[in-house]
Amino acid sequence: MIRDYTTTLTQKDQLTRNIWRFVFSLEKGESIDFIAGQYMLLKINDSYRQYSISSPAYQKESFELIVELISGGLASTYLKDLAVGGAAYFKGPAGVFTLNHSEKNKIFLATGTGIAPMKSMIETSLHGDDVLSDKPDLYLLFGLKTKQDMYLYEEFRQLASQHTRFHFFICLSRAEDLNGLDPRYSRIGRVNKYLNDQFVEGFSPQTLNDNEYYVCGSRLIVDSLRDFLTSLGINREDVFFENFTV
Questions:
Q1: 225 and 140: one domain?
Q2: Looking at the DSSP assignment, which residues form a beta bridge with residue 214?
Q3: What pairs with residue 47 in β-bridges?
Q4: In a domain, 100, yes or no
Q5: For 160-196, b where at least 16 C-beta lie within 10 A, e where not — what string?
Q6: Would you tell me how many other CB atoms lie within 10 Å of the CB of residue 82?
Q7: Is residue 130 over pLDDT 70?
Q8: Does this model's pTM top 0.70?
Q9: pLDDT digit string, tens, across residues 79-99
Q10: Is residue 99 part of a domain?
Q11: If we measure between CA atoms, which residue out of 125, 161, 122 comes closest to residue 142?
C-alpha cells in the first residue's frame, strides 16, 4: 500500500567515491511493509526521485538506500547535503520487480546500483534458513569496473559463508588482476562474459531454463543482458528486469 512517510536519516556511509548508503528510520510507532525489490519515492520540493530499497523486507522500522551521487543532480545534491538527524519525506512502497516464489534457482545479474533491489531480495530470501534448507539456490553476478569501485563485497562474502545456497561473484570489467581478492568470489570481465565462459558451461540448454534470471542496471546494460539471455535460448517469461534511475 502506497503511503507517505516522514523519516529521519540515521546513517550515511560513503561506500566508494560516488556510492553512498543511506538509512532512514521511521517515526516512532510506524513500520513499513514492502516486498523485496520494491522502491520508495523521495520527495524533493515538488519532485520525486525513485530509489530501490536495499534492506531486507523483514526490517520494518527503517529502510536502506544505495545511491550513486551524480554531480549537479537534484536528488544527489539533496542527499549529499542531508545531514544525519535530518528529515526526509517519502512515498511508497511501489514497484513490481519482485522475486517469483518458485522452485527454480535464481540468477541475479546486477551492475552498479542495480544491486540495491537484489540485495533486498537475497537477504530476505535467506532469512530464517537452516542447514538443511531445500530452497532454491541463489547466484549473484555483480558487475563493477575496478577494485576501487567495489562495495558490499564483505557483506556478500559473509552471507556466502553462512548460507550454502548463496553464491556470488564480483565481475570487474576493467581490472588487470585479482590480487588481494578471494578468487572464489572474484572474476575479471563483464557479467555476460563470466556467465558465458564459466557459468553457462555447466548447464545444458534445458537446465538453463530451470532457472529464473533477474537483471538490474542502466537501461543500456539491462537491454544488452536481456538480449544475451535470449540468445542462449532462455525463456522470456523467466527473465525479470528493472532499469535503475539516477
A1: yes
A2: 108, 240
A3: 44
A4: no
A5: beebebbbbbbbbbebeeeeebeeebbbbbbbbebbe
A6: 16
A7: no
A8: yes
A9: 999 999 999 999 999 999 999
A10: no
A11: 122
Question: Do 12 and 43 fall into the same domain?
Answer: yes
Range of the domain at 148: 105-243
Same domain, 223 and 131: yes
Looking up residue 188, the CATH number of its domain turns out to be: 3.40.50.80
| Euclidean distance between CA atoms 22 and 179, whole angstroms | 30
Domain-embedded: residue 24: yes
**Same domain as 229, residue 151:** yes
Mean pLDDT of 133-149: 90
pLDDT digits (tens, 9 = 90+) for 149-188: 999 999 999 999 999 999 999 999 988 888 888 888 988 8
Cα 109 from Cα 142, distance rounded (Å) = 6
Grid cell listed for 28: 516512532
Q: Shortest CA distance to 142 belongs to which of 161, 160, 164?
A: 160
Secondary structure of residue 32 in the 3-state scheme: coil
